[in-house]
Amino acid sequence: MERYAQYEHLKVEIADRIATLTLNRPESRNALNRKLIHELRSIWLDLAEDHDVNAVVLTGAGDYFSVGGDVKHMSDRPGGDFLAKGEIADPSASRRLLVNMLELDKPVVCAINGDAVGLAATVALLSDITVMADTARVGDPHVRVGLVAGDGGAVVWPLLLGISRAKEMLMRGLLIKGPEAERIGLVNHVVPRDQVLTLAQEIARELADGATWAIRWTKLSVNKILKDRMNLVYDASNALEKLTLKMEDHQEAARAFKEKRKPAFKGY
Asked: Cross-referenced CDD domains, in alphabetical order (predicted)?
């Protein structure tokens, strides 16, 4: 466990060849700040080198999986400062997080115990198998705060839902509950919230006890599709998101969120 001692916002537990990762900022609904994004970027590399781990369960502490970025603090900084001083100071941080996750050959089961939003939804949906609470919601509402869905949503949603349905979800910034997410094929399993982690652990146990290299190389074979789509889509969508960070519409959305009112978008 020494290799995991540096993790602050990511709780890491290893037992019987299964690593349980918990996004551990419950006081902020597990919002993805700069530190947690860095830890999520690094954890997949550490797990790849840990020969005591054969499967991974990913979940969130408290009532949420993760609400994604911290919208409340967006209004406190001008758009130009976001790249230099903001919560996600490294503009390639989320890309490396997702690529490192896709490169991990060990199976990842995501226990979506509560709402999964934005980048957090992307992380959850890029897991190999998803188990979601029936009361939880999942979505990528970047457009609601005047931003392009640039940190992976444009990559994974069309692959899971098809282009037409994915565009509606992303362009309207919709959040949907577990039963609907299961019906349209976005997640694998939906169960009552108190059963989410149990089922995820049962699936992880099956995978950990299975034919190791057959499972790992099957995952890597399928993930070539995801990696190809990352190369095709991610850089353009992320660059466009950075442009919208500097627009007045985004600043107005952030102010409106903080002031608990509907934003008045101007189109620039």
From this structure: crotonase-like
String of b and e for 155-177 (b: at least 16 CB within 10 Å)? bbbbebbeeeebeebbeebbbbb
State which residues form the domain around 227: 2-194+209-259
Integer-rounded Cα radius of gyration of the chain: 18
Say what the pLDDT of residue 10 is: 98
Number of domains the chain contains: 1
**Assigned domain for 20 exists:** yes
Among 89, 86, 81, 87, CA closest to 67: 87
CATH assignment of the domain containing 175: 3.90.226.10
Query: What does the pLDDT look like over 93-120, one tens digit per residue?
Result: 899 999 999 999 999 999 999 999 999 9
pTM of the model: 0.92
